[in-house]
Amino acid sequence: MKELKQFFYLVLVVLATATMSCTKEGPQGEAGKDGKDGIDGTNGTDGANGNSTCMECHNDESDLFLKQTQFEHSTHFVDGPSHVGYANYAGGSCSMCHSNEGFLTAVANDNNSGGSHPEATPMSCGTCHQIHKTYTTDDYKMHYTKAVDMYLNENDVFTGLEVDATSQYSDPNGMSNTCIKCHQPRHRGDTQPDPTVDGTLEISAGAAAHWGPHYGAQGAIFGGVGGYVGTTDPTAPSGTKGHHSCKSCHMSFIASTGNYGEYLGGHAMGLRKGDDTVEFGACNTCHTDRGATIDLEGIMASTKALHALLGQDLMDAGIMDAEGHLIGGTWTNKELAAYWNYALVKNDHSYGIHNKEYSESLITAGRAYLGTNN
Ligand code: HEC
Ligand code: HEC
Ligand code: HEC
Ligand code: HEC
Ligand code: HEC
Ligand code: HEC
Question: What rounded mean pLDDT belongs to the chain?
Fold first, then answer.
């Protein structure tokens, strides 16, 4: 922060000099000596207006400062740097979700492929927002607001899966689609199960440890897609969706400090407190006021209990180990579909809050595939 401020004031001095002397070309040339100054120098042509525009965002009272402080408490900021190396791994197949450059590449190409980035940087403000384009608060517009054509569609087992948060509660413009683009599952290529097909698939012990939909299952569960339900068209979208949007639960309902009191919500985005319980206080003000209280803790507890039943079935059948990993072996499509559903609900982490009906359907369907549902 300090460095940024010092640097910023330096830029301001350069701009101010440019304005006072009315000879814009000269002082700008000087600023160009170090890389970043050069870019900002170009904006010096706006003269006095340029300065006040900068100060609109770059001052200690502004949203910028508040959001930076919150963001520094997010998992994105804290853990992002330790995972950014994935951006140059596995042929670029990780970079969309684990780096700034990969995400912006996938957005520019309108697909789910970030490409390889040896010089990748972790997520920052400009990953989601259009920083320094117009130098007005318009720059806080998102890069990506369209419905997400799910990555799973690249596998023949799935078709036409799309998740869209536009017009979901408090999100008329689909800002949460930014979240869904990263928080979506990955497919498993040749070993993606299809429970309508008889026969088996072999998963090696090495592949089994990572087999499944990957961690970012939230967008799929929220949109009611990406798992297996029933036997006729098991991958069809369920049609159930949560009432809220990602940002309405993880970022909104906030006081002017922009968080729930210990850097929860806002740009910190997490809802789990230091004592490892979930902050439902701000949710309950609304839910209780409406009279018809939704028992949020109750939803999580009951979904967790149901999920544990499927987990036990999978362990009893020797498909899954006690850590929740698939065990290498030759499994039927239905068995793998049951494990997929288990992992999708597990990796969503919300146990029914993102989409209770769909989470329950996945668990019930998983048990039906194993024949343990009665
Ligand atoms: C709409 C708000 C906004 C305006 C207006 C704005 N900036 Fe920024 N600026 C940002 C944000 C957001 C960042 C990223 C901060 C971070 O990463 O924590 C940033 C970062 C910077 C940085 C750090 C280096 C970098 O590029 O990341 C400098 C220097 C900077 N701005 C200078 C300026 C100057 C000079 C102007 C006026 C010509 C200006 N800014 C106008 C929002 C703004
Ligand atoms: C560029 C990809 C990307 C985008 C966009 C993104 N996330 Fe994330 N998110 C991640 C990754 C990756 C992690 C895991 C931490 C890490 O390695 O950075 C994560 C972690 C999280 C966590 C914490 C999970 C935990 O285990 O503690 C929450 C909550 C979260 N994101 C919510 C959101 C919301 C809400 C949005 C949209 C406003 C969003 N994310 C947008 C990639 C993304
Ligand atoms: C479609 C987006 C996406 C892709 C592609 C992706 N990830 Fe992730 N990954 C995520 C998200 C989102 C999280 C965090 C989810 C959460 O915490 O609930 C995550 C979490 C992780 C974690 C766990 C981090 C931790 O310790 O909490 C690891 C490890 C990981 N990813 C590795 C990889 C690797 C390796 C690849 C490429 C082979 C990859 N990811 C590709 C979205 C993705
Ligand atoms: C993971 C995506 C993501 C990242 C990274 C991110 N933001 Fe945001 N930001 C959002 C979303 C979504 C909203 C809308 C939140 C809401 O409406 O409650 C938002 C809202 C804002 C707003 C309010 C805009 C308005 O029009 O009122 C500001 C200011 C802002 N962000 C600044 C920042 C700054 C500064 C950073 C970096 C420190 C940052 N954001 C990083 C997603 C992100
Ligand atoms: C501004 C008011 C308001 C706040 C604050 C609020 N909710 Fe809601 N919530 C609603 C309304 C309205 C509904 C729709 C009620 C219905 O379907 O009966 C709803 C429905 C839900 C549902 C069931 C439908 C679904 O989305 O699956 C859940 C779960 C839920 N809210 C969770 C939360 C959580 C968690 C929080 C806090 C992070 C929260 N709510 C905060 C107004 C609110
Ligand atoms: C109805 C409110 C609500 C909505 C809508 C919602 N979330 Fe959540 N989310 C929660 C709650 C509550 C948890 C559980 C918090 C926990 O266990 O840390 C959670 C958990 C998560 C986690 C795991 C956090 C962790 O600490 O392990 C991530 C990541 C996440 N949500 C991302 C998203 C994304 C992306 C969206 C939009 C697709 C979304 N959420 C929509 C309320 C919501």
Answer: 86
352 alpha carbon, closest ligand = 5
The pick from 350, 355, 359 for probing ligand 6's pocket by mutation, whose C-beta has the most ligand atoms within 8 angstroms, reads 350
pLDDT for the residue numbered 320: 98
Give, for ligand 3, the residue of 77, 79, 83 to mutate: max count of ligand atoms closer than 8 Å to Cβ.
Answer: 83
The residue whose C-alpha atom lies closest to atom 34 belonging to ligand 6 is 246
pLDDT of residue 60: 80
CA 223 – CA 220 distance, rounded (Å): 5
Q: What residue's CA is closest to ligand 4, atom 20?
A: 140
Rg (CA), the chain: 24
**Exposure of 147 by Cβ count < 10 A (0-12 exposed, 13-18 middle, 19+ buried)?**
middle
Work out whether the CA dihedral 303, 283, 244, 218 comes out positive or negative: negative
Q: Is the pLDDT confidence value at 351 over 90? A: yes
**CB 267 near ligand 1, within 6 Å:** no
Q: Where are the domains of the chain?
A: 2-59, 246-289
Amino acid at 339: Y
pTM recorded for the entire structure: 0.92
What does the buried/exposed string (b/e) look like for 206-231 if buried means 16 or more CB atoms within 10 Å of the residue's CB? Answer: eebeebbbbebbbbbbbbbbbbbbbe
